Amino acid sequence: MGLNENVNNDSPAEPTANTQQSDVDCLRADLIAADYSVDAIDRLWGTDAAAALHRGYRAPAERALVGNASPLATLARLFVLGRAVSAAEAAEAFPLLGLAGGIRLALLAVDGDTVESTTVRPLLDLRPYEFTDSRGPGAWWIASDLGELALGHAIPEDHVLGVGGASLTLSGLMIGTPVDSVLDLGTGCGIQALHASRHAKRVVATDISKRALELTALNAALNGVTNIEVRLGSLYEPVAGELFDHIVSNPPFVITPRTPGVPSYEYRDGGLVGDALVEAVIAGAADHLVPGGIAQMLGNWEYHATSDAFSRVAGWLDRAGLDAWIVEREVQDPALYAETWIRDGGTRPATAEFDALYEAWLDDFAERGVTSVGFGYLTLRRPADESAPRLRSFERISVALGAGLGDHLAASLAAWDWLAARTDLEIADARLAVASDVTEERHYWPGDEHPAVITLRQGGGFAREVHAGTALAAVVGACDGELPLGIIAGAVAQLLEVDGAELLAEVEPTIRELVFAGLLVPQD
Ligand SMILES: C[S@@+](CC[C@H](N)C(=O)[O-])C[C@H]1O[C@@H](n2cnc3c(N)ncnc32)[C@H](O)[C@@H]1O
Q: How much is the pTM?
């Protein structure tokens, strides 16, 4: 390692492709040798310190590292805590990459003129990331820009985000059916593109930020992923005229006042008024999906005093001609929304700057008569058959999502197609089975023979709870995949001493919902 280089340099010389690749190979080897992994870091400072870090405080983690100069501790200090280390510690942590390599990769900067006084500081956040998707477990390292904690001040407007809560939400929803092509619109550090690279032959990752694309390319190279192509440009400009099997996007959907002085963070603000950016991503998806292709995205939508958000979104979808399943996870009032996003940019409450931004946000919402803002997930599909009925499902589900929801979404889309292709008579002829993750709860008033409440509970998927009457519970309970639904309904009607056709007509709409939601599975 070139400690005698006396470098004091934040802007490295332009590396050639070969040096860049060999530097990345050395970095990977150094990270592996140090066991720079999620588990090892958790063990290094423990769960309490990890939780404090998550809340934005690094003191407990720093205390846990006192006296520990191992390569693992050095890497964690540099890239998770954002602290400088001594040159000797850095030398031990990067035996192959060396300081010169770290500088060429724009990963490290060196301050000081002599070997003794030299310190090494991080220019990037670089941390291990673990996940499980439909292909099984995986682990990567993800580089992104240094956050507020490491910088010690608010992040700049061109900040490239690391893996955050919204990133995890979208990657957890990603449908992993093997496909030829995926577009990741607004790739940031490339996390969605990396996930898509596991099931797509090729991924195109776009962004308006050149720096984001450089980080995506670095992350792909560092993790040995070779099927991601990066392209610079806004929205669908870089893919004009191209069609994709899947589109994924965690777009910059945050509603931001277009008032002078309000910072416009690239990572969250698409530069349009209100929720127009989400509308634009939806509209463009229709022109860039193959028939049957699927777009998955996150978004915010405004509720106006005069219109419900879902009916506004339905208007966008009708114009785009897409199937749509929208799940709203959260609704915030304008004040809470403004506070959340002003704080997210690092502006502290009880400052004049915070108050001015707060006013700007509230003025902006008031101008359009915004009463609240919804957040959720959209699964859109270009119909393979233009004449088929359109899927339109708008739901409010506030439960936190588990990992691996992509398989569930794919199964629900297939279930929708199955339902759309069948009349009620054909459904009555179908054999259905209760999904293996469904349980039934019965609650009785003390002393009563009959339950007051029967609940069907889904273990996976969206963890739905469905309240069932006696007839529906009996029909669902008998769905073992052997007998057609109509026969089961007839037998239940006999037991309850009611008309069979009436009972079937009463339960069939809910049976359809249970099939779509994955509580009942067609066996035909
Ligand atoms: C919320 S970040 C998402 C990053 C990453 N995909 C993830 O899931 O964590 C949104 C990204 O969109 C990019 N972006 C902003 N405006 C854009 C535009 N008009 N067209 C394409 N990308 C844009 C930002 O630079 C940022 O990287």
A: 0.92
